[in-house]
Amino acid sequence: MGSSPNAAPHSEPSPEPERAPGSVPAPHTPAGRDGLAALLAHPERAVVALDFDGTLADIVPDPEKARAHDGAVAALGRLVPRLRAAAVITGRPAALAVRLGGFDSVPGLDHLTVLGHYGVERWEAATGTVHAPAPHPGVAAIQAELPGVLDASGVWHGTWVETAIERKGGQAIAVHTRRADDPQGAFDRLRAPLAALAERHGLIVEPGRYVLELRPPGMDKGVALAEWVRETGASTVLYAGDDLGDLAAFAAVDKLRSDGLAGVLVCSGSAEVTELADRADLVVDGPAGVVELLGALADHLAVR
Ligand SMILES: O=P(O)(O)OC[C@H]1O[C@H](O[C@H]2O[C@H](CO)[C@@H](O)[C@H](O)[C@H]2O)[C@H](O)[C@@H](O)[C@@H]1O
C-alpha cells in the first residue's frame, strides 16, 4: 500500500512461513528466530502481546460486529498459562475489546491485561475493572462539529454519515470509510479536513484500515508495550499486529531487542496494509494464521 494505509486489493497469497520443528512457523530473520527460540526455551520469561482488529479478529464492515476469530480465545487459554504474561493492545476501548473478544471469565486468561485506546485504558482480568483517564475535552468538541464536517465533505449522504462515526466511549472518535461507495477515495478526501479538525482541538489523527481516528496525543502502542514489558520483567516479547497503529509497537520491540531482550515481530498479513510485513520477522495469513501460530506455540510448549 506504499504511503497509503489502504492498498488496493491484490490476489497474491500471503507467504507461507517455513515450519520449525514442532510445526511452529519459523521466522525468516535471524533476530526473529532467536526470539522464537528464547520464547520456546523459557516461556516463563516470555510475554505475548496482540493487537485486536485484523490480528485476533477478522476485519468486518461494521466495527460493532467484529469478534475474535474462531479458536483465538481457546488458543490463548492454552498458551497464556505457560507464559509470564499476555496482553491485548488495541485502539478499541478496553471494555469493548473484552466484550467483542470474549476475554472475560476464560480459563487460562485470568491474568490477561487489555490495554485499550492505544494504552490509555487498562483492563485486568484478575479484577474485571477498567482504569481510564478523564476524557480529553477536545473529543466532545469534535463530536459536536464532526457531522457538519462529514456532511460538507460530500462523501456520504443523509443518514449514512452516522454509520461512519464510531464514538469510542468519549475518549476518541473514529470515522470509518469502509462502507462508503469509494472507501479509499473517501479516506483520501477526509484526511486533511479531519487533521485540521483534530488540530483545532488538540487531538491527532491515527490512520488505519479505512479509518481515521481522532484521539488525544501522548500515548501509542509502542509506549504502552514497552511500559508493560518492563513491568512484567520479561526477557522475551512476541508482538503481533496488522495495521499502521502497530508500527509503534514494532519499533518498541526493535528498541527492546537493542537493549538485550529477545523479540519476535509477527505481521497478521492482509492486502490492505503492507508496511508491517516489510518489518516483521514472520508473516502469517491474517487472524486465521495468528490463531494457528498461537495454537502451535501452545502445542509445542505442552509437550516440552
Ligand atoms: O488496534 P486495533 O485493535 O487494530 O483497532 C484499530 C481500529 O480497529 C477498528 O477498525 C477496524 O476494524 C473494523 C472491524 O473489523 C473495520 O470495520 C475497520 O475498517 C477497521 O479499521 C475499530 O473500529 C477502531 O475503533 C480501532 O481504532
UniProtKB/TrEMBL annotation:
It catalyses: alpha,alpha-trehalose 6-phosphate + H2O = alpha,alpha-trehalose + phosphate. Its EC number is 3.1.3.12. This is Trehalose 6-phosphate phosphatase. Transmembrane segments: none annotated. The lineage of its organism: Bacteria, Bacillati, Actinomycetota, Actinomycetes, Kitasatosporales. InterPro entries: HAD-like_sf, HAD_sf, OTSB-like, Trehalose_PPase. Belongs to the trehalose phosphatase family. GO terms for molecular function: trehalose-phosphatase activity. Residues 1-11 have a biased composition (Low complexity). Residues 1-34 are annotated as: Disordered. The gene is otsB. Its cofactor is Mg(2+).
